[in-house]
TrEMBL record, chain A:
Name of the protein: Nucleoside ABC transporter membrane protein
Taxonomic lineage: Bacteria, Pseudomonadati, Pseudomonadota, Alphaproteobacteria, Rhodospirillales
Gene Ontology cellular component annotations, sorted alphabetically: plasma membrane
GO terms assigned for molecular function: transmembrane transporter activity
Transmembrane segments: 33-56, 63-86, 92-113, 143-160, 188-207, 219-236, 241-258, 264-285
Organism: Dongia mobilis
Domain of life of the native organism: Bacteria
UniProtKB/TrEMBL annotation, chain B:
Name of the featured protein: Nucleoside-binding protein
Keyword Signal carried by entry: yes
One cellular component (GO) term of this entry: plasma membrane
CDD domains on file: PBP1_BMP-like
Organism: Dongia mobilis
């Protein structure tokens, strides 16, 4: 295979993986704090339209990216208020957030249909970006791609190497114990939710500013749900999430090449592979009680009452 | 929160009032008449449902009536509920605009014989149910001719949605057009199992271009594939609406669905009581299908495209006329034989030059 074709395929894999990675790492941190937010899809869409609208109106992609993060955070704040302060059921609230987000984004975006924006510019370093193969792959990406990798490294460092991360994991595993020691369970969970919202918003911005630079209703087309599956697939570990996101993205691209090559593999089969893999991973980790204890946050989805 | 809601309610009220006002100016009958529309996608798709909504707005304006639309209606049990609701609430004519609304439309139509129903792209009719569709394949043939002239690799990447006759006839018309100018022309196709998923459409376009195609054709609804072509300095064709804004240097042309006149005419007929059930399959000639301006191509190709368009419109060129070979090279349509509308509408075979199998 020609190297130009290979580079181009790898570039499409990176593009397909980045939104999953951004939303996934946000949700991973949220779930690590013991909160299950199923509203990723809705937050992503609000981020997508916020990012698009601001970029289109102001002409500045940086402002757009900022707006996307804020948009996602605003949605997450609604979720956090309902589930953490009012102690509503997290699953129901998360689902409602998704449905609400789809509608809200459609309403916000009604005036922006049919307008293009320039694609988020890629890094263009003299000499480095011109290196064959490595140049475009490593030095030619846009800001959000680099940011997604940095976010994984940052989240990994935070969770395992910092005091804050230790507290967050402690809250996710046993909020009662963490509360008894005096950690602010609700406040930390609020912060985690806001972080998750911002990352989902950025994932949306990647869709509307880089992946397909336009606004279209429901443009996330289920990627928020894949990101949720990804967190389980990764067994709540940032490193595995990175791997999983690129695997999922790779399969997304692979299914089209499989079709054109005429290998006789049904495309539907290839497109269900990521989900199949997630189910297999779920089966694997559920079959072993120790592994569940080691990986899944023990308080995931359970409301916290500051009793006594 | 409260202020926001109040402002929103006010805005909504103002909108409703503005929408209702023009109706008061017309005769009572016009103001009373209501038309209903059921869309499968969001009107924000800038494609299929968007064009239907443009038609609705044009009809409302021309006739001075108000209409109701319901978007994002799934093709299933929900559709019947939505259509029934519209029939129950006094809509005199109801347009259901997706193939999957066929059976629900007929079912509701049986219970409301006085209401007129119009079902797009279907084939089942009744005394109060018409069907209407556009011969999109005419546009595909012209696109094929352009692609045959413009492609240097001789390979077109074709993004399909779902392997139904509507999509297959488009693909076949395309390759017939392409091979009329380049007998070696080929189509590489992928199906994305969706009418509308910008990300997936973009991925499919990238994969096809990586496989050696240098022009993208699509039977999906978003401008995403064109954006990919634009980014790579290659060419492509838009779908359902003029998408030149998304790909100023890449869009060669686009088939533009034009429902305005049909919706105006049929609603008017229903209002005046002259409505009768029929089956319309309009194309370039009837004005239901337009071609977006030919762009990004040399003058001779443009001339050729325009001549082809004129020939189809005048009936000088029949697209599905033999000899046509099937994918494996065997004769499918004998020389001189012309496929009738039934054979076209039920097309389930690929013509020679299209590579790859249809997904089962």
């Amino acid at each position: 295979m020609e190297s130009a074709v290979l580079v181009s395929i790898l570039l499409s894999v990176i593009a397909a993986s980045t939104p999953l990675l951004l939303a996934g790492i946000g949700e991973l941190v949220v779930e690590r704090s013991g909160v299950l937010n199923l509203g990723v899809e809705g937050m992503m869409l609000v981020g997508a339209i916020a990012g698009f609208a601001v970029t289109y109106s102001s002409g500045s992609a940086s402002l757009g990216i900022l707006a996307a993060a804020l948009g996602g955070m605003a949605m997450a704040l609604v979720f956090a208020f309902l589930t953490l302060t009012l102690q509503a059921n997290q699953v129901a609230t998360g689902l409602a957030l998704t449905i609400f987000g789809i509608g809200l984004a459609a309403m916000m975006g009604a005036g922006f249909v049919g307008h293009p924006v320039p694609k988020l510019p890629g890094l263009d370093l003299p000499l480095l970006s011109a290196i064959p193969v490595i140049g475009p792959l490593v030095f030619g990406q846009d800001f959000l791609v680099y940011f997604s990798i940095a976010a994984v490294i940052g989240a990994s460092w935070f969770l395992y190497r910092s005091h804050g991360g230790l507290v967050l994991r402690a809250i996710g595993d046993s909020h009662d114990a963490a509360h008894a020691i005096g950690y602010p369970v609700i406040r930390i969970r609020y912060l985690a939710c806001l972080f998750g919202g911002a990352m989902s918003g950025l994932a949306g911005a990647y869709l509307s500013l880089s992946y397909t630079p336009m606004w279209a209703e429901d443009m996330s087309a289920g990627r928020g749900w894949i990101a949720l599956a990804l967190v389980v697939f990764a067994t709540w570990r940032p490193g595995r999430l990175l791997l999983g996101a690129y695997l999922f993205g790779g399969i997304t691209i692979l299914q089209f090449h499989v079709q054109t090559m005429g290998l006789g593999i049904p495309p539907q089969f290839v497109s269900m592979l990521p989900y199949l893999a997630t189910i297999l991973v779920l089966c694997a980790i559920s079959s072993d009680a120790t592994r569940i204890r080691l990986n899944a946050p023990a308080c995931l989805g359970r409301p916290f009452h500051a009793a006594g | 929160m409260l202020i926001k809601r109040r402002t929103f309610t006010k805005a909504l009220g103002a909108g409703l009032a503005a929408g209702a006002l023009p109706a008061f100016g017309h005769q009572a009958r016009a103001a009373d008449f209501k038309a209903g529309y059921v869309y499968v996608g969001p009107i924000g798709d800038h494609g299929w449902s968007y064009q239907h909504d443009q038609g609705r707005l044009a009809a409302d304006k021309a006739l001075g009536i108000t209409s109701t639309y319901v978007e994002k209606v799934p093709e299933g049990a929900d559709a019947e509920r939505v259509i029934r609701e519209l029939a129950e609430t006094g809509h005199g004519i109801i347009f259901t605009t997706s193939f999957g609304f066929m059976d629900p439309t007929l079912k509701v139509a049986r219970d409301y014989p006085e209401v007129k129903f119009e079902h797009a792209t279907g084939y089942k009719r009744a005394d109060n149910v018409s069907t209407y569709n556009i011969r999109f394949y005419e546009a595909r043939y012209i696109q094929g001719v352009i692609a045959g002239k413009m492609s240097t690799s001789g390979v077109v990447g074709y993004i399909g949605s779902i392997p139904i006759p509507e999509v297959i006839m488009g693909m076949n018309a395309f390759i017939l057009g392409m091979r009329s100018v380049n007998p070696q022309g080929r189509i590489k196709q992928v199906f994305i199992n969706s009418w509308y998923d910008p990300g997936k459409e973009a991925d499919a376009a990238k994969a096809l271009l990586d496989q050696g195609a240098d022009i993208i054709a699509q039977h999906t609804d978003s401008p995403a594939p064109l954006q990919v072509a634009q980014e790579r300095g290659l060419k492509g064709f838009g779908q359902a609406s003029d998408m030149i804004k998304f790909a100023p240097d890449a869009q060669l042309t686009s088939a533009v669905d034009f429902w305005d006149d049909y919706y105006t005419e049929r609603t008017k007929a229903a209002m005046e009581g002259s409505w009768a059930s029929h089956d319309v399959w309009g194309g370039l000639k009837s004005g239901m299908l337009h071609m977006a301006p030919y762009a990004n191509m040399p003058d001779d190709v443009k001339q050729m495209a325009m001549a082809t368009e004129a020939d189809i419109r005048d009936g000088k060129l029949t697209i599905f006329k033999g000899p046509i070979n099937a994918q494996d090279g065997s004769a499918k349509v004998a020389a001189g034989e012309v496929l009738d509308d039934g054979a076209i509408a039920g097309m389930d075979w690929l013509a020679q030059g299209v590579e790859g199998d249809l997904p089962k």
